[in-house]
Amino acid sequence: MRDKIIKLKKDLDAIILAHNYQRAEVLDIADYVGDSFYLSQIAKKCKNKTIVFAGVHFMAESAKILSPEKEILLPVLDALCPLADMVSIETLKEFKEKYSDYTFVCYINTSADVKALCDVVVTSSNAEKIISRIENDKIVFLPDKNLGEHIKNKFPNKKFIIWDGFCPTHQRIQVKHIISLKEKINNLVVLAHPECNSEVREVADFLGSTKEIIDFANKTDYKNYLIATEDGVIHTLKQNNPNKNFYVPGTTATCINMKKTTLEDIYNSLLYKKHSITVDEEISNLALKSLMKMIELAG
Q1: Segment 136-149 mean pLDDT
Q2: Chain CA centroid to CA 21, Å
Q3: Strands 14-19 and 138-142
Q4: Residues facing 18 on adjacent strands
Q5: pTM score, whole prediction
Q6: Is the pLDDT of residue 20 over 80?
Q7: Quick one: which of 49, 112, 114, 195 is 20 to 30 A from 186 by CA?
């Protein structure tokens, strides 16, 4: 199957982008591996006109918004993001009316419809920088309450309204499992994603995005790391650091939607052009404005 994909990809002049949380065999076949916004930027910059995005729906949507002239294929159409799905458009519109003097900041883990209604998009790695550059001291942050609380704590002089959403995978990570492992393993360094709950964030030695967690482990010389984020990153970490040990807190940090995509799905997506992502032009234009505002404020 790997050989078939490589040949077909070459014949079609296509590339494969894979999010860090994908299956190991999908990561190994990808041309680029990273977080959702990085991959969307690759999609925009590359010369290839056909792009297979091994991730979840909002990621392929973002890539399409940034590169409307390219064909963005999502191998598994029902690979969705439960966090992104926690925003009701009707409720968001009500919020917009009620808090009309607030700046609406949405996490990139949202649908195109949500991005279109917000002022600026952020990622977990640039949210703090972007909010520091927003002149308005009134912020509505959505949809992740854990990331929102983490950012809120950085700005005591700003007023935040935080959406009550969460990533089920990160929410399942429990501090008791981390403490238990720290008692068993000497000098265990805890690296956590800010989508984790406050108890987990408080015991972490380092908080950062998926890329920042990987970079921290790559660049530091500790022996034992506990990775408090989706466990797909362990594959990349072990490849980059064969002499280091990586542990997960319990056995629950797996995103089922991220793991839906198989090599066969990627092959069929290339062969039959499944599933080509489309975004309504008006929605796309509005969402693009909030994405471009992120790029502007992130510097």
Answers
A1: 98
A2: 9
A3: unpaired
A4: 33, 54
A5: 0.95
A6: yes
A7: 195
